[in-house]
Specification:
Blueprint (H helix, E strand, L loop, with lengths): L4 H25 L18 H21 L5 H21 L4 H48 L6 H17 L1 H24 L9 H17 L1
Helix pairs in contact: 1-2, 1-3, 2-3, 2-7, 3-4, 3-5, 4-5, 5-6, 5-7, 6-7
Length: 221
């Protein structure tokens, strides 16, 4: 293990609190898409249950990254644990990934790349992160084009966040993140087909689960 358990617990608690505190202010300020249809308003999601769920998931995510990845990558994975989890949770409830929040996550990830470089990753961690974001975005853009919009373009925008954080550690983690995200998404799709549910489903949660599953694989191997 790269991180020790007490530090992981402390980081998990900090990230959980930070995410929970952000939920309501963020949801209240998100603009609604013009073509939202029957989507529930973002501000209506801000229940205690939603807040606690986001905080808990963010804490678990932070603990996984802290125990499995180098410390210099933690600023980037903290962005995923907070904003990535919040985006995925919104996707679950609404089937939308808010563009404004995704753009904020991009900016936060860019700042985290700089922090990772200064914390010991060096210039090459920034190079890998930029390349990883580009590769992940290109892979999902290609999938979106091939599927002719079979899944939302918000997932294409979400992918660079995962690619940047994963590649900052290694190309192996990037490949595992993309692979396992696809596997989890495929399994969910098969379950839904077995239930005769053929409508589109939120895909960002599966992408995010794939990233943290990749961390666990690297930790146990």
């Amino acid at each position: 293990m790269i991180g020790d358990a007490p530090a992981a617990i402390a980081m998990a608690l900090m990230i959980a609190v930070a995410c929970a505190l952000l939920v309501r202010p963020v949801l209240r300020r998100l603009p609604e898409p013009a073509d939202a249809g029957g989507k529930p308003p973002y501000r209506d999601l801000a229940s205690i249950r939603f807040l606690l769920s986001c905080g808990l998931l963010a804490g678990v995510a932070a603990a996984v990254s802290w125990l499995s990845l180098p410390h210099y990558t933690q600023p980037m994975w903290s962005v995923l644990a907070i904003l990535g989890v919040l985006l995925a949770a919104i996707d679950v409830r609404t089937s939308w990934l808010p563009l404004r929040l995704t753009q904020v996550a991009w900016l936060a990830m860019a700042a985290a790349v700089v922090a990772a470089a200064l914390l010991g990753g060096g210039v090459w961690v920034a190079v890998r992160a930029i390349a990883g974001a580009t590769i992940a975005g290109a892979v999902y853009l290609l999938a979106w084009l091939i599927s002719r919009g079979g899944f939302g373009f918000g997932d294409v925008r979400f992918a660079p966040l995962l690619g940047a954080a994963a590649a900052a550690d290694s190309w192996t983690l990037l490949c595992l993140t993309l692979l396992l995200g696809t596997v989890v998404g495929g399994l969910v799709g098969l379950v839904r087909l077995a239930q005769r549910r053929r409508e589109a489903f939120p895909y960002a949660p599966e992408m995010l689960i794939g990233a943290y599953a990749a961390c666990i694989v690297t930790m146990i191997t």
